[in-house]
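User: I'm putting together notes for a lab meeting next week and I want to include a structural view of one of the chains we've been expressing. I don't have a solved structure, so I'd like a prediction I can at least talk through. The sequence is below, exactly as it appears in our construct file.
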Amino acid sequence: MQSEVRVERDSNGRYLAVSRAIDAPAERVWDVLTNTACWPKWGPSVRAVECADRNIRLGSTGRIKTPLGIELSFEITAYDEYYWSWDVAGLPATGHRIEALTDRNGCRVVFSLPLFAVGYVPVCQRALSRIDRLADEDL
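Assistant: Thanks for the context. Below is the predicted structure for the 139-residue chain, given as structure tokens.
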């Protein structure tokens, strides 16, 4: 399956939405997205994670190590049913959400990012491909 890139709007304004339909239950995909042990497996910009919470929640904090070896702090700033977002190094970063598919089984994973972060779209597309594969594996 291919990813899709669109400009969407919410109460905070316009943003890029990078998404992909995945043939796995939303609960399973949510486990992949919220389990910090999985982040290096699907996140091309994450090599390692330090976090007291294996499964994130609102207010979870920690550090990620990038492929360049740079360590950055993070905080989960929003967490709701099938949605979370975070600040990385004190700056708003990607949002992560799961939507039900009405035309078939499975779900759609959506990364939201600011319009100026268009260069990060290929990273999100790679992550979505990896999440699709991980949803079929044991965590």
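A couple of points you could mention at the meeting. The first strand starts at residue 4 and ends at 10. The beta strands are 4-10, 13-22, 48-51, 61-65, 71-80, 83-88, 91-100, 107-113.

User: Perfect, that's what I needed.
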